[in-house]
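Help! Submission page says 'invalid entity' but I think these are all valid:
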Amino acid sequence: MNDKGRETRRIVSVIGTSTATPELYQLARETGRLLAERGCVVVCGGRGGVMEGVCLGVREGGGLSIGLLPGSRDARGEANPYVDLPLATGLGEVRNVAVVSAGCAVISIGGAYGTLSELGFAMRQGKRVVGLDTWRIRDEKDQPAAMLEAHTPLEAVELALEELEGTR
Amino acid sequence: MNDKGRETRRIVSVIGTSTATPELYQLARETGRLLAERGCVVVCGGRGGVMEGVCLGVREGGGLSIGLLPGSRDARGEANPYVDLPLATGLGEVRNVAVVSAGCAVISIGGAYGTLSELGFAMRQGKRVVGLDTWRIRDEKDQPAAMLEAHTPLEAVELALEELEGTR
Amino acid sequence: MNDKGRETRRIVSVIGTSTATPELYQLARETGRLLAERGCVVVCGGRGGVMEGVCLGVREGGGLSIGLLPGSRDARGEANPYVDLPLATGLGEVRNVAVVSAGCAVISIGGAYGTLSELGFAMRQGKRVVGLDTWRIRDEKDQPAAMLEAHTPLEAVELALEELEGTR
Amino acid sequence: MNDKGRETRRIVSVIGTSTATPELYQLARETGRLLAERGCVVVCGGRGGVMEGVCLGVREGGGLSIGLLPGSRDARGEANPYVDLPLATGLGEVRNVAVVSAGCAVISIGGAYGTLSELGFAMRQGKRVVGLDTWRIRDEKDQPAAMLEAHTPLEAVELALEELEGTR
């Protein structure tokens, strides 16, 4: 990896439920593969479900995945088998903040309540956030939250990387 | 405060936007007053908007409010003027986790993205969560999140304290 | 508590080992009593050992103690029996940052490794730090860390409250 | 990188002051180079001083360095120029917990108070901790903390990787 390569590798965070349906798992896997093929480093929570799907896809695409795990030891033991770099954080749920902070964009697939907290932090930080079959969020005036909606992994990746023009 | 008082004082977390409309500010103020009158200790983020409104109401109701501030010094300077106990946390946005963890129930009023992250953590923790004019959240299958919906401060307080039977 | 009282109540953080010897427990208890008698609010980690001793002393002195607990639920169950306001934080070890951030000064009694992390954060924040029978810390040039050394609870409290002239 | 390679790459955390003397900078640089030559991934705080020295050494040794930065955006802008993978965490000082949690061992070089907090967390977690020209820490009974003392970068790396028999 030359210096230029180092400088220009984009990091994308992918968040989502740890208990994914087979459909969500495949969406995550395809998303990971597409991100890897575009040379992105993928950061996620490193556990199962959507996180495992995306790491499998990244491996299939020849990319690099980083999993930020909640415990303080044995990250490999906590991680799904496809995480390239499992990092123990010792932060428990607080790691969610780090997962979304790492990426220049955040792609959310499916999602449980931990994912919802990550979406809140990502939008609070002004990140580019793309939802694929995930939480639908509207404010008290019934205005949608600042998420771009994708209908396929390809659209999610293109919106995240601003290859498509997103509308907020 | 006698020992029994100590043991039985309930803590309720109130979360919401720091830039509240006058309407939201008054909803927060009334909610704080009602919680104080029922002997609850109120924990919030200690800043302006909804947080200031609820602290003013707690003071009017003769209760105790605790504000968990993001900085590591001068919590009084960061806090709204009605916080009884301003606690610097040094945690920045991570303090949101502590704000919702402190309460046996969480009442959300209005809300920006920080509030959304708090709602995610609160439901992740299985807290009793009551929304009053706040985020509307549905999952990818269009099922509502585990929040009780209130239409008035009184209803919000009664749902939070389980004086009303909530439906999830 | 009137507004003036609110404005002027000083908060002091007390940190120390959860498995205290009877001697350390008594030092903590006396320190808590003296802080309460001076009208300080005491913040600690809310568990056993030194934390329990200081909360007992605060209660004997008629003061108010706040315990910041690591879990996200049932703070009362996690807390020692003398904590007045047990606040669950959901932060695990990260709560150590909040414990030292809350006080205008930090008193360290005895101590295990968690306490050492708290001392590092407190000095990083430029807090006034007083050690009583605690870690002895010198840098690579053999210069002492920015802690004031006390030999009795009374001296620790007076140094913390700057009633004595400390030397750094 | 084949699967076996993935499984067996050890992660070592290196901590130390952001304002290093030229001597400490060179110790860090040599330590980074030796860790890279042994195939370790190096995690640090990603800023200047010791953190920059170690990342430069890792690059010279052909290894991979990960920097966990305090901010929530523009990790590249916050990072020293030699960090291979700069990860924004959005955690501020709390990131210190993640820096030490990531490694199977922690090497401390020089150090300011942030480093001291990291040493506390690392020993709290039972990590293998090696000090090179860093804080000297003894408990209230004048017993040394659970750190191995190294006198050269080579000794530090060998102790961290248990190629030497450390004494605690």
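Support: the input was valid. A stray whitespace character was the problem, and the output above is from the cleaned input. The first helix of chain B runs from residue 3 to 8.
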